[in-house]
Specification:
Blueprint (H helix, E strand, L loop, with lengths): L2 H16 L12 H16 L9 H14 L2 H8 L3 H5 L6 E5 L9 H9 L3 E5 L7 H12 L7 E3 L9 E5 L2 H11 L4 E4 L3 E5 L6 H12 L9 E7 L5 H6 L10 H16 L5 E3 L4 E4 L9 E7 L2 H10 L4 E5 L28 H6 L2
Parallel strand pairs: 1-2, 1-4, 2-3, 4-5, 6-7, 6-11, 7-10, 9-10
Antiparallel strand pairs: 8-9
Helix pairs in contact: 1-3, 1-7, 2-7
Length: 356
């Protein structure tokens, strides 16, 4: 498959997916819609039966981000740095991708990169997310049958592979290193995202921060799991600004986690614990807060935060802030809107793939 064909195919996929985004509108009748529209719409509405975290809203949010990224101009700009290697005539490599299942289609970017690099994708799906990407692959193959020989999903042992991309926890990373260390590999561990506040945030900015915290129930590595706030910070405005997210407690899985963690903290007489009946705020130096809990830590000056973030950079996926003093900060509300170049763990997946 030539590069131009791959680009055109993914652009067409993006146009199709846009119909199912949060504010998507069904397009006029076409062959792709006749074959897939009703089936995909039904899958979006019923996938929560298999994974209670995958609500219709969250699935459509994930589709929105994918469809927005599959714009021809974005793809051309993104690939410009790799174009020489991509145009070289070489035999494709077989790349195994072991996927997480924390948010809907979280493995799409890896699959996308493998295919755009001209290699063969062999996916090992998480049991938590085993329906959506195989459906997407059927659409790709319909758009261009050449993908039929380049996309494979397997539940068995990974054999006859040339490279591995694996995403999981710190514990699973040790397992992945043991079994796949002999191959060229990218092995990702636990990461979390943080927000740095300076007490000058507007109510709107704090509301957008609520999106960074609650989207996908906080399960993504780009979800904010900790706040850095100046000493003496009052949380009243923050709690007021995120009040519209109170509906999250109505999800049984989230509600059960919130109740459990609240009980544990109360029984252990935790100090510095704040509660608004759908989110617990706990003073803690850690980064990975449990579901329904947001850690916070006071700071004396912004430079000390920058220094800490640099020291702990291996634990952090992204930093949200409006402060110009925070390095590489993401605007409020954009934590779950990564660009094509915002690679997980800061490792350039495409550079890895084209250099195989």
């Amino acid at each position: 498959m030539v590069l131009d064909n791959r680009i055109k195919t993914f652009v067409k996929l993006g146009v199709f997916l846009k119909q199912f985004a949060e504010k998507g509108e069904k397009q006029k009748a076409n062959l792709l819609n006749e074959a897939f529209y009703e089936h995909f719409e039904e899958l979006i509405k019923t996938v929560h039966i298999y994974n209670g975290w995958f609500t219709e809203q969250n699935v459509r949010s994930a589709i929105s981000e994918i469809s927005n990224s599959l714009h021809e101009g974005f793809l051309i700009d993104w690939l410009s740095g790799y174009v020489k290697s991509l145009h070289e005539n070489k035999k494709h490599k077989v790349v195994a991708v072991i996927m997480a299942g924390n948010i809907p289609m979280v493995g799409f970017h890896d699959m996308f990169c493998v295919l755009m690099s001209g290699n063969k994708f062999v996916g090992k799906l998480s049991s938590e997310d085993k329906l959506l990407l195989p459906f997407i692959s059927k659409i790709l193959i319909t758009l261009d049958p050449a993908f039929a020989n380049l996309i494979e999903f397997t539940e068995g042992p990974l054999k006859n592979i040339d490279a591995v991309i694996a995403t999981g926890s710190d514990n699973s990373a040790r397992y992945f290193n043991y079994y796949f260390g002999k191959y060229p590999h990218i092995i990702r561990k636990n990461r979390n995202s943080v927000a740095v506040l300076d007490a000058n945030e507007s109510s709107k900015e704090l509301s957008l921060l609520g999106k960074d915290i609650f989207q996908y129930f906080g399960l993504g590595c780009r979800n904010v799991s900790k706040l850095f706030v100046p000493k003496g910070y009052k949380f009243d405005l923050f709690y007021e600004a995120i009040f519209d997210y109170q509906y999250i407690i109505n999800n049984n899985k989230y509600g059960n986690n919130y109740d459990y963690n609240r009980t544990v903290y109360l029984m252990s007489n935790q100090k510095s614990l704040l509660d608004n009946n759908f989110l617990l705020l706990k003073e803690d130096v850690g980064f990975s807060s449990p579901i329904g809990v947001l850690f916070f830590e006071y700071y004396d000056d912004i430079e000390s935060v920058n220094n800490l973030l640099e020291i702990e950079k291996e634990k952090i996926q992204c930093v949200v802030s409006h402060s110009n003093s925070i390095k590489n900060a993401v605007p409020f509300g954009d934590a779950q809107c990564p660009k094509l170049t915002d690679y997980a763990d800061g490792i350039d997946t495409m550079a890895f793939l084209v250099d195989l």
